[in-house]
TrEMBL record:
This is DMT family transporter. InterPro entries: AA-Vitamin_Transporters (IPR050638), EamA_dom (IPR000620), EmrE-like (IPR037185). Its main location: membrane. The chain crosses the membrane at residues 36-58, 79-100, 106-123, 130-148, 154-174, 186-208, 220-243, 255-274, 280-299. It comes from Psychrobacter namhaensis.
Length: 310
């Protein structure tokens, strides 16, 4: 029961990440650059509080953890390369959602993450069965089908940005598999990402002054700030923390499979809160991609993912 509760809450948080971003940008409450900056800052603050409580808990449970294990957990501080991947993911995520529906964006993100991680496994010469190879190519075909020119086809630029975001999170997830404490590593990576905040601010102002974008700092509304903080502190910071609590309670395959729900949940949230339509291409592409990934996972003892990538 505990595992189910934590898992459902975490998946809703990750799906809500897409909803918060799309809602803020589609309604013009904030621009993509401002959203990214506030999201990174609020996530860092939230994770800082959670990590402080986590460190206190580790130090107080001397019986449960040996001194060596406790120090190893406390010394896991991520890396600059992972933090760079995190910033690329967050920025491209926001820029893409200026033009993408909630569900479409989540599906492209999920597809890019999964294909990146599967592709990395192939590059590292992991042994795949014939069925897994077939599932991989079917997933790629589903992604191509989603992008085929049609009335409902997503913006090519926005879709490309979201795909880049997914690749960046795939890289982040691959690097994170070696972490001893994913929660602390993620927290420190968010801390490092704050170095990029002044750069994002300057670039955002420059693009506005040159007419490339129409964003203005003075146009950022209270609703935009609240949605960006919700995306960072609640959907990202608290969502990751709850997921890391759920993961030890799930089997490897279960942890991977439940993540297939995120694009579907995101699409449903978009329908309910933003009145976005469920198009036939999206439904077909979702069935093809998620079904193929499910087949791939069920035919492999997949290690627990470092992060659900949303």
């Amino acid at each position: 029961m505990k595992a189910t509760f934590y898992t459902v809450i975490a998946l809703l948080a990750f799906a809500a990440n897409s909803l918060f971003c799309r809602m803020a940008l589609a309604e013009g409450y904030i621009d993509a650059w401002g959203f990214t900056i506030i999201r990174l800052m609020s996530a860092a603050v939230c994770l800082g509080v959670i990590m402080t409580l986590h460190a206190y808990r580790l130090r107080s449970q001397a019986v449960k953890y040996s001194h060596t294990d406790r120090e190893a957990l406390l010394n896991d501080k991520g890396s600059w390369l992972s933090s760079f991947s995190l910033v690329v993911y967050a920025l491209c995520f926001s820029l893409a959602y200026v033009a993408l529906d909630t569900g479409t964006g989540a599906l492209i993100l999920f597809s890019a993450v999964q294909l990146t991680m599967i592709g990395w496994g192939i590059y590292k010469k992991e042994q795949l069965s014939t069925l897994q190879w077939l599932a991989f190519f079917v997933a790629v075909a589903g992604f191509i089908y989603l992008m085929l020119p049609s009335v409902a086809a997503p913006s090519l630029l926005a879709a490309t940005l979201m795909a880049v975001s997914g690749v960046a999170w795939g890289v982040y997830s691959i690097r994170g598999k070696s972490c001893i404490s994913p929660l602390r590593a993620t927290g420190f990576n968010f801390f490092r990402s704050l170095v990029a905040v002044p750069i994002l601010l300057i670039v955002g102002i420059y693009l506005n002054n040159t007419g490339v974008t129409n964003s203005h700092l003075e146009s950022i509304t209270t609703k935009g700030i609240v949605l960006a903080c919700a995306s960072g502190a609640i959907a990202s910071g608290m969502g990751y923390s709850i997921w890391y609590t759920a993961m030890p309670l799930l089997k490897n395959t279960q942890a991977a499979i439940v993540q297939l729900c995120v694009p579907v949940l995101a699409a449903l949230l978009g329908v309910v809160f933003l009145s976005e339509p469920l198009t036939v291409p999206f439904v077909v592409a979702s069935a093809i991609i998620l079904g193929a990934v499910l087949v791939f996972i069920l035919n492999k003892d997949t290690p627990k993912a470092f992060d659900p990538r949303y």
